[in-house]
Amino acid sequence: MTRFLTAMLCAVAMITAGAGPALAQRSLADLLGREAAPEGQPKSLLEEMFLYGYLENSYVVNLGQASRGNTNDIRFYDHDVGYTWNALELSFKKDPSERYPWGFGVVVTAGMDSQKNHSIGIFRDLDDGLPYLRNTPKYDLAEAYGSVLLPIGEGLTLKGGKWGTPIGYEVYESPKNLNFSRSFLYSIGTPYTHTGLLATYPFAKWLSVTLGFTNGWDSADNFNGYLRAIGSVAFTPSDKFSITTNFHVGPEQTRAQMRGDDVNQRWIVDTTVLYTGIDKVTLAVNFDFAGEENDPLLVALGIRKNNDSRWSGVAVYGAYDWTKALRTMARLEYFADPHGVRNGVTTPGHNLDLYEITGTLEYKIWRGLVGRLEYRHDEASRRAFTLKNFGTTPTAQSQDTFTVALYYSFF
After folding, report:
1. CATH tag, 2-410
2. Poorest-confidence range of 32-41, 87-96, 341-350, 399-408?
């Protein structure tokens, strides 16, 4: 614990020594001390460019004395017990506008989270060991894209490059999530990033549609030669209520796995409902349904007539702002892995249901320095956690963890 506190305080001191008040993001004009355009007037170019960054560290305690490398099973982002340097991120983005119809985004990261976020072809190869990618660099090019607003109808926006997936409620940047730990839905149920092209058109103020193609789940390299379809429909009748449905479909297996001419599709349908119409309250629910034809893990068993896999889940989120500095958040989740192909612990072909409840207390300590205390309980339908055991055989159906996390957001 002493090492954890020393590292955290030193890192924060280095950043805050020359930093001003931190916000979620700041425009380049604000950083340079330029005056903002009068209300109702078009923004300057510098006002449309935004910088964002953060540094995050954490210390995780497994209350069941986790073993097998001192880890928390099926918890990829907070997998290691003890101190972890989670992330350092720098982001520079601009959205297209009528005055300046071009945009861009560049996000670079470092830390343990970066290993989980690697796309195939960028600091990661097909044969790198999933899911923890321990042999890959602890830095990443998380996003790199360009965009343009075309004067077609109400405005058609094209976006090409690498970007964070629109699927799911949670994102790869921990401070932007309600809880410190990631849900099972995010960790093992959905992709993290895509590389491809998107076209978005607003049919009305409350309805926009996005269609495009990608190189696959967490893949910048199109290793099998097939493009995958992606799309979303965003229904936003007010600024306090929204429903967004996303889909992604296409083959994620190599040509060898698909045995030549066969094309085995992986698909996912995702819906997020968000409501902020109650003062100081945030409510959200996220549903996912997914599957894959002739899943390689089931094919390898050689004993099944039907090798198609399925997985699904639902997560419910709630947050309450007690003061400007103090906030509490909770998450309830159920994840179904009926064919045992997503969890990485049980033998493929065996059903596993996962449940978790997470409570997080967040306090804004000073400027951009934020502390989080989090308790999480994981439950499984069969033994999936290796507690109090130095072997590799799961011995428990539940695990409990307590986390202390600090992040500093700057710019």
Report:
1. 2.40.160.10
2. 32-41
In order, the DSSP letters of 172-189 are: S-GGGSSSSSPPHIIIII
φ/ψ of residue 367, rounded to 5: 50, -120
CA dist., res. 117 & res. 77, Å (int) = 10
Contact criterion met (CB below 8 Å) for 243 and 212: no
Question: For the chain, what's the residue count?
Answer: 411
User: Between residues 34 and 274, which one has the greater pLDDT?
Assistant: 274
d(CA 91, CA 49): 11
Domain ranges of the chain: 2-410
C-alpha atoms less than 13 angstroms from C-alpha of 214 in its C-beta half-sphere: 31
Q: Which of these, 24, 21, 83, 31, lies nearest to 56 by C-alpha position? A: 83
DSSP letter assigned to residue 130: T
Instruction: List C-alpha distances in Å: 30 to 17, 108, 346, 386, 411.
Output: 19, 22, 52, 51, 10
pLDDT confidence of 7, banded at 50, 70, 90? very low
- Per-residue pLDDT tens digits for 139-177: 999 999 999 999 999 999 999 999 999 999 999 999 999
Cβ(179)–Cβ(58) below 8 Å? no
In whole angstroms, give the CA distance from residue 111 to residue 139. Answer: 6
